[in-house]
Write a structure and sequence with these properties.
The protein has 241 residues and is an alpha/beta fold. It contains 8 helices and 7 strands, in the order E-H-E-H-E-H-E-H-E-H-E-H-H-H-E.
Amino acid sequence: MPTALITGGTTGIGRATAELLHARGFQVAVTGQNPDSVARARLELPDDVLVVRSDARILADTDALLATVSDRFGSLDLLFLNAGIFRPAPVADVTEESFDEHVDVNFKGQYFTLQKALPLMNDSGSIVLTVGLGARRGSLGATLGAATRGALLAMLPSLALELAPRRIRVNAVSPGLTETPLLDKVGVPQRDREAMRTVIPFERFGSGQDIAEVVAFLASDAAGYVTGQEVTVAGGYGLGI
């Protein structure tokens, strides 16, 4: 039975991916930092999904997480590095605390989760990074989110080359505007959401399921010759002039 670890898997895209992979026969572990979302995930996800409260900023938490995953699964076929934060602010308002938090969660935490998970990864396994369109397209107030998520994209080619001898594939998925709890967290009003929909050729936001299907493909044998690539899942957003 294939195995998967999904960071940031208690809500949104991560949770949708956990549900999809579990339905397709994976043993799944998910992480979350918020105690409320962790508690809901434990109640609502299937009983055999391993839900672990783990703070990506704390490397001791990551060590404990990987020890738990090792004890339960023995090895991993998919590592989906999806955990992240996004707190938009203009450059003039960014504090050192906010800067450090974005770096610690979006880049440092994911980097060291990857490092510590590699000994558990099966040869011919798959690693998927969540990046997002902000790394390549401008958005007001998004400098920190774009830079720290974009750091994952910048390391993608080198990481894919490094792990190629083990036939471990490394790819990124970049969601466009997606209907997740993040929209509520950053306080996007409904009228603004309607305006945002008008610039999407498919005239709707993406869903967690849309992204989950792409992650499942990248984890499958059907993507066995795909590595070092970024897959944009955005309903055509950004294609126009």
